[in-house]
From TrEMBL:
Main location group: cytoplasm
Pfam families registered for this protein in UniProt: KH_2, MMR_HSR1
Gene3D superfamilies: 3.30.300.20, P-loop containing nucleotide triphosphate hydrolases
Entry binding sites for GTP: 34-41, 81-85, 143-146
Subunit structure: Monomer.
Domain Era-type G intervals: 26-193
Name of the protein in its database record: GTPase Era
Coiled coil regions, renumbered to chain: none
Length: 320
């Protein structure tokens, strides 16, 4: 167990603001769909301006539906960052695909994000074939325009628009911020009249504990991606606000084998200490409070096939 305190930080937990009651408010949901690595998390972060989803160089890092909330004028745009849509193999993967598509069917607009450099590869084609089933306004977003020449972009936009009737096409670089402002405004304009669905200052409705778990998972990945590719998960067991304004957080890191447990702990617990330190700093930032983080490591075999796990992660069971 690691208790990693930061006594220099005396932040206080955030207070909820009352909901807006202005009559001209608009609010709605936008689903982001794309193959792994298209840049969904980067775009979500660029649009929201706060770190709400974890960006990684590896594919399939997004294991849960994480939402970001964009405030643009009187409009509130709630972004649903769908897990990558790809050919399902394991039960967990099938649940993720199901979840991604049901997120799209409920949205006020569906954005297909395509890595412009890769273009319409087989994975994108699979989505394009299924997209017409979703009877919602569709928007095409070509990302990573910093990596390809303009002529190829226009060509790609034309080809994709022939396959699916997109109402709008945007060309952006989520990484560099190009085109983000225009996209944000366009999404805001599409939102139906509605009271705001979330307090104005709430940037993410992903429970903080889930976000905290993702942060720790990212720190494990940063240090151990060679030794522990995908096979670990983190759960926040306890999130307790204390009278002094600090938060006590307990998390469990699940691995599949005893040998992996030793890797996470490291020699004399050095590795888990470093993971805990890095995670605690970042969790403190998002929680806006001093954080005491306690990490446990447990072995749990075959977690990826355990239905209870993906229910906890906010994923639904596939019906088919
Ligand atoms: N050059 C360039 N790279 C980008 C851009 N947007 C995203 N990337 C990079 O592409 C990689 C994948 O981005 P992510 O945002 O993690 O992709 P994702 O679609 O959320 O991936 P999953 O979580 O696996 O579904 C990262 O290395 C990003 O830095 C862009 O506009 N330009």
């Amino acid at each position: 167990m690691v208790d990693d305190r930061d006594d220099a930080d005396d932040g206080k937990p955030q207070e909820m603001q009352p909901e807006a009651r202005r009559e001209d408010t608009r609010a709605g949901f936008v689903a982001l769909i794309g193959v792994p690595n298209a840049g969904k998390s980067t775009l979500l972060n660029a649009l929201v301006g706060t770190k709400v989803s974890i960006v990684s160089r590896k594919v399939q890092t997004t294991r849960a539906l994480v939402r970001g909330i964009v405030m643009e004028g009187a409009a509130q745009v709630i972004l649903v960052d769908t897990p990558g849509i790809f050919a399902p193999k394991r039960r967990l993967d099938r649940a993720m695909v199901h979840s991604a598509w049901s997120g799209a069917a409920d949205a006020d607009a569906v954005c297909l994000l395509v890595d412009a450099r890769k273009g319409a590869d087989e994975e994108v084609e699979t989505i394009l074939r299924r997209l017409p089933e979703v009877k919602r306004p569709k928007i095409l977003i070509l990302n990573k325009i910093d990596l390809i020449p303009r002529e190829r972009l226009l060509e790609l936009a034309a080809t994709l628009n022939q396959q699916v009737p997109f109402e709008d096409t945007f060309m952006i670089s989520a990484l560099k911020g190009d085109g983000i402002e225009r996209l944000r405004q366009a999404l805001a304009e599409r939102m139906p009249p509605s009271p705001w669905l979330y307090p104005e200052d709430q940037v993410s409705d992903a429970p903080l504990r889930m976000l905290a778990a993702e942060i720790t998972r990212e720190k494990i990945y940063d240090r151990l991606h060679e030794e522990l590719p995908y096979r670990s998960t983190v759960e926040t067991d306890q999130w307790q606000a204390r009278p002094d304004g600090s938060v006590r957080i307990e998390q469990t890191i699940f691995v599949e084998r005893e040998s992996q447990r030793s890797i996470v702990l490291g020699k004399n617990g050095q590795t888990i200490k470093a993971i805990g330190q890095a995670a605690r700093i970042e969790i403190s930032e998002v929680a806006e409070a001093k954080v005491h983080l306690f990490l446990h490591v447990k072995v749990r075999e075959n977690w990826a096939d355990d239905p209870a796990r993906y229910r906890e992660m906010g994923l639904e069971f596939p019906t088919g």
